[in-house]
């Protein structure tokens, strides 16, 4: 089980900011790959969001080197005496935090809108280590290249791009950078082991409301259905969303997640602090893969991966805040009031969720946690590791997802 979002306990009091006019992305870079441009119409947005949260305050010294990071990871994953389990708690009190963020987002809809699905918008939330899109400065060139991340990589798009796949099937998609990644702003107020308070990117409820109202859906207007799709940490945020307000979503697809295991932080031993040079402006509480071997062990099937895809993800890796790894104190959430369709799809050899073997582990207790979901489906995706979209046969997984939507009437 991925540590459950600590944020599900945080009260999101204030939703979307007064809806300011969307700002179109700078025209100096392509909004999408050439192949996407052939089949879809894409538009970029910078979306202002204000949230009010009760944040936890970091109570430990900040990391001064990567040995401190190792010690933190050990405290996090080490076996707790049972019973009672005493969760590792690095916090000292709470604090009210109002955060104003700008969320980078892209919306794409199919040019060929004859299939009847185009008004179904998939709202996609990426997980830790990724983003929607970032600027990447190559070492050889001085110019900035636009690289696309989890949902729409520019690497062999017919094989790896979820966005292109769903648009080719007639669906629309809205993708955004979680706060602190990609082109979303205000990393300052993200919690890190600095004396800064812990807060988060509770942006999906306000974003959902804006997307539902048709504000960030290009020429499409108001969607008829909004389906939330998450990967990993993005799945936790998605689960939390329908737990808190089941009416916000018409269906959810949770990928790279699981509820029957407790080992996710084990793969965190592959992490190291990002400072001092790679991500200027971030403090030492932001972590990334220590090296490409940590990446392959955590996100791929080491026995079956495309080295090009591995290196691509290594280049686009986004740092995560150390606090994002912390489990919540209260165990599995339930979303028993959610009555829409729920699909859980996780790679067979996912290390973090299933200790490398998800067979037999996805169905329960997920089915009970979503006891009113209709339909409910749990799918083990053969041979894939945690980062499904960059693993071989990613389109096989995409097909399971669009088939599920179609058979659920979405
Ligand atoms: C926790 O906060 C209190 C009040 O701000 C402070 O006096 C105390 O030293 C803090 N403890 C730790 C461990 O940071
Ligand atoms: C448009 O989509 C429909 C249904 O999805 C498909 O049958 C048709 O071949 C597509 N037309 C073009 C020109 O791609
Ligand atoms: C892209 O993926 C497809 C499908 O697996 C494959 O046939 C093709 O050779 C790949 N292209 C490149 C440039 O790697
Ligand atoms: C489900 O909805 C009922 C009625 O609104 C409410 O009392 C209950 O707390 C909800 N359950 C959960 C798990 O949110
Ligand atoms: C976890 O999976 C095992 C094997 O399928 C099953 O026996 C067990 O009941 C599941 N745990 C929960 C809490 O559902
Ligand atoms: C590709 O994925 C689909 C869906 O999970 C699966 O049915 C199929 O067997 C996979 N193909 C291979 C070659 O693993």
Q: Would you kindly provide a written description of the structure presented here, covering whatever features stand out?
A:
- The chain is an alpha/beta fold and 410 residues long.
- The protein has one domain: Rossmann fold.
- The chain is 22% helix and 24% strand.
- The chain has eleven helices and 15 strands.
- The strands form three sheets. Strands 1, 2, 3, 4, 7, 8, 9, 10, 14 and 15 form a ten-stranded mixed β-sheet that branches. Strands 11-12-13 form a three-stranded antiparallel β-sheet.
- The longest helix has 14 residues, at 394-407.
- Residues 260, 360-361, 364-365 line the site of one 2-acetamido-2-deoxy-beta-D-glucopyranose.
- One 2-acetamido-2-deoxy-beta-D-glucopyranose binds next to strand 3.
Task: Produce a short descriptive summary.
The protein is of the alpha/beta class. The protein contains eleven helices and 15 strands. Helices cover 22% and strands 24% of the residues.
Molecules bound to protein: 2-acetamido-2-deoxy-beta-D-glucopyranose
Number of domains: 1
Radius of gyration, in angstroms, nearest whole number = 20 Å
Question: Uncertain runs with pLDDT below 50, 5 residues or more?
Answer: 1-31, 134-145, 186-202
Instruction: Tell me the CATH topology.
Output: Rossmann fold
CATH superfamily: Alpha/Beta hydrolase fold, catalytic domain
Gap between N and C termini, in Å?
28 Å
Signal peptide: 1-25
Region (Disordered): 183-215
Protein name: Alpha/Beta hydrolase protein
Biased composition (Low complexity): 197-210
């Amino acid at each position: 089980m991925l540590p459950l979002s600590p944020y599900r306990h945080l009260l999101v009091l204030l939703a979307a900011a007064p809806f300011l006019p969307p700002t179109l992305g700078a025209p100096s870079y392509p909004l999408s790959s050439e192949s996407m441009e052939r089949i879809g119409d894409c538009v970029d947005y910078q979306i202002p969001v204000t949230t009010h949260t009760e944040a936890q305050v970091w109570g430990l010294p900040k990391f001064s080197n990567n040995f401190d990071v190792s010690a933190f990871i050990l405290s996090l994953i080490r076996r707790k005496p049972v019973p009672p389990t005493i969760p590792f708690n690095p916090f000292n009190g709470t604090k009210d935090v109002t955060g104003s963020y700008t969320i980078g987002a892209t919306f794409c809809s199919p040019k060929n809108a004859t299939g009847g699905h185009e008004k179904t918008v998939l709202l996609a939330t990426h997980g830790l280590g990724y983003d929607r899109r970032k600027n990447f400065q190559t070492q050889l060139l001085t110019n900035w290249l636009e690289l696309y991340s989890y949902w729409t990589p520019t690497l062999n798009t017919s094989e790896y791009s979820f966005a292109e796949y769903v648009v080719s099937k007639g669906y629309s998609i809205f993708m955004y950078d979680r706060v602190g990644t990609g082109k979303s702003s205000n990393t300052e107020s993200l919690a890190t082991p600095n004396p800064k308070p812990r807060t988060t990117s509770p942006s999906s409820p306000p974003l959902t409301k804006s997307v539902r109202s048709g504000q960030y859906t290009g020429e499409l207007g108001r969607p008829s259905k909004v389906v939330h799709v998450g990967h990993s940490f993005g799945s936790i945020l998605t689960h939390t969303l329908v737990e808190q307000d089941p009416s916000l979503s018409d269906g959810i697809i949770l990928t790279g997640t699981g509820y029957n295991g407790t080992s996710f932080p084990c793969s965190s031993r592959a992490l190291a602090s990002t400072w001092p040079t790679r991500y200027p402006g971030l403090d030492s509480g932001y972590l990334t893969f220590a090296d490409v071997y940590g990446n392959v062990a955590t996100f791929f099937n080491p026995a079956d991966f495309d080295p090009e895809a591995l290196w691509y993800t290594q280049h686009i890796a986004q740092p995560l805040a150390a606090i994002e790894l912390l489990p919540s104190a209260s165990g599995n959430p339930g979303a028993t009031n959610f009555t829409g369709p729920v699909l859980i799809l996780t790679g067979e050899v996912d290390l973090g969720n299933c200790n490398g073997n998800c067979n037999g582990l996805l169905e329960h207790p997920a089915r009970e946690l979503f006891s009113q979901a209709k339909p409910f489906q749990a799918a083990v995706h053969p041979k894939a590791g945690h980062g499904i979209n960059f693993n071989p046969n990613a389109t096989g997984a995409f097909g399971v997802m669009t088939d599920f939507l179609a058979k659920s009437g979405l």
